[in-house]
Amino acid sequence: MNFKILAFISLLFIAPTSNEDVYFWGKNGHRVTGKIAEKHLTRKARKKIDKLLKGQSLAFVSTYADEIKSDRAYRSYSPWHYVNMGLSETYEESSKNPQGDLVTGIAKCISVLKDDTSSVADKNFHLKMLVHFIGDLHQPLHIGRKEDKGGNDVQVQWFGRGTNLHSVWDSKMIDDYDMSYTDLAENAEELSKKQIEFIEQGSVVDWVNEVHQITDDVYKSANVGENLRYRYSYDHFATVRQQLQKGGIRLAKVLNDIFD
Prior knowledge:
P1 Nuclease; mainly alpha; three-stranded mixed beta sheet
């Protein structure tokens, strides 16, 4: 076999070894959250966002923070995609990463967007990052254990092929459901005004602590080496959809607070 072909094939089976080297939610997941958020924006916020993004949708820009990871100039933003916490800890109790994390990254984005002295370029950049990070927050393994890099080192199989638990929740279940991001967004659960208001309640830290309760369940949902198949999606895809919808509603709440 040609050496170059053999080397390429071998790369396909190398599992990610760092939180900085993986995508969170996956592209479709982030786009679902962005699309749902658009439905909950006020008219005033939508108009300002449309101007700042030059007509690009929230769904379109939702993957930007992952796309720039290949550029070393943006390497310092990598820790903003996740929080490492012990399963029994709250965010307030946990040891903080001196390089920042999801909570501090979101706070920075909001600060820039609210600052009248920020340049248009800075606001554009931090808006795209904020859209992504609010989505990231709602992927339970974003708020995972440091020792296994948010489930990246928890090796499992997905329909007989090697992967890890983080990837299953990040993209495998979503991609295998085989629905476009627009279809997934349009088929989100119908919620009453009171249900939406309940989801919007709380701070970013409150949301982190809430999602972290699901994280514990996710770690318990599979054993190392287990072959996850249809039954796993049957048991857990409703949680994925719920988290994507909550992410969209809360993203809209944050954006309305900034721009309305």
